[in-house]
Specification:
- The chain is of the alpha/beta class.
- It contains 7 helices and 13 strands.
- It is about 30% helix and about 30% strand.
- It has a 9-stranded mixed sheet with strand order 5-4-1-8-9-10-11-12-13, with helices on both faces. The chain has a 4-stranded mixed sheet with strand order 3-2-6-7.
- A hairpin with a 5-residue loop joins strand 12 and strand 13.
- The longest helix is centred in the last third of the chain and has 16 residues.
């Protein structure tokens, strides 16, 4: 059986991006210079990134019956993502976020989940959904019950799973053994119980700590690079590529989508992480995907 499709189960957000001279402090009203709408949500971004990396991409998610939802569907289709399993929830607004970006590319954001909290786990039992699927990508912007249902179906069907555990939250014990690859950034790794990640050796140490619970682990450390532990226990470190930063917003999602595509194309975890790191570097520097 040919399994070339990435199935992303996750969130969709209508992002409102605000450019400002700096990120506001508590109780400060900062004066912005511009704003614009952007397609977002970790799930949506990762599904699009997988498609741009050359993998057939399919998505399970939910939007509201509103203009935001129409925008999100249109963006998925324009990127070549199959959105037929994205539900429209009549009595819920689409997910959205507001993100503030400073001239250095740093950002802070607030999300409102909306329809993302209404994804029906029952859709994951449909046989047609899994046609040609070779990898499932998940995040923590949707209910735990949906992630667990996706992982159980994936395991039953012999499909690998990748969890981008962002934002960080406690994971149910039943979910952990069903994850083939865990991807977290430095902050998320620390919130899952690792020592501080302030160097590539520290990122590798964090990956080793997490590998006690997960089959494969990648810990990304921003401008430092990343480290990981493969399913066979082999460690790897990949220094960051020096690039000019236009914006770091969405870099993690570009990484996950490219990682998923590379894994489906037969790369091992270290090689897939290296390809994904290149995709993330191109993203933050404003270059189109290679």
């Amino acid at each position: 059986m040919t399994r070339t499709t990435v199935l992303t189960v996750g969130s969709l957000h209508y992002d409102i991006m605000v450019a400002a001279p700096h990120l506001p402090r508590r109780d400060e009203t900062a004066v912005g210079t511009a704003w614009f709408p952007k397609f977002g949500g970790k799930g949506g971004n990762q599904a699009v990134a997988a498609a741009r990396a050359g993998a057939p991409s399919r998505m399970v998610g939910a939007v509201g019956r509103d203009d935001f939802g129409s925008f999100l569907r249109g963006a998925l289709r324009a990127a070549g993502v199959d959105d037929r399993r994205v539900a429209t929830i009549p009595d819920a607004g689409s997910g959205m976020s507001v993100a503030i970006v400073d001239p250095g590319g740093d950002y802070a954001a607030t999300i409102v989940s909306g329809a993302n909290q209404r994804i029906d786990p029952a859709v994951l039992a449909q046989d047609a959904l899994w046609a040609d699927v070779g990898l499932v990508v998940l995040q923590n912007e949707i209910p735990e019950s949906v992630n667990l249902a996706a992982c159980r179906e994936a395991r039953r069907r012999g499909v690998r799973t990748v969890l981008n555990a962002a934002p960080a939250r406690a994971l149910p014990a039943a979910l952990i053994p069903l994850i083939d690859v865990l991807v977290v950034n430095a902050v998320e790794a620390e919130m899952m119980g690792t020592p501080v990640v302030d160097s590539l050796p520290a990122a590798e140490a964090a990956a080793r700590r997490l590998a006690d619970r997960f089959a494969g682990v990648i810990v990304t450390a921003g401008a430092l690079g990343l480290a990981g532990i493969g399913p066979d226990g082999t460690a790897f470190r990949i220094p960051a590529r020096p690039v000019p930063i236009v914006s770091s917003h969405g870099a993690g999602d570009a990484f996950i989508g490219a990682l998923a595509a590379a894994l489906l194309q037969g790369a091992g975890l270290a090689e897939a992480a290296d390809r994904a790191a290149l995709a993330a570097a191109r993203h933050v520097s404003g270059q189109p995907p290679s």
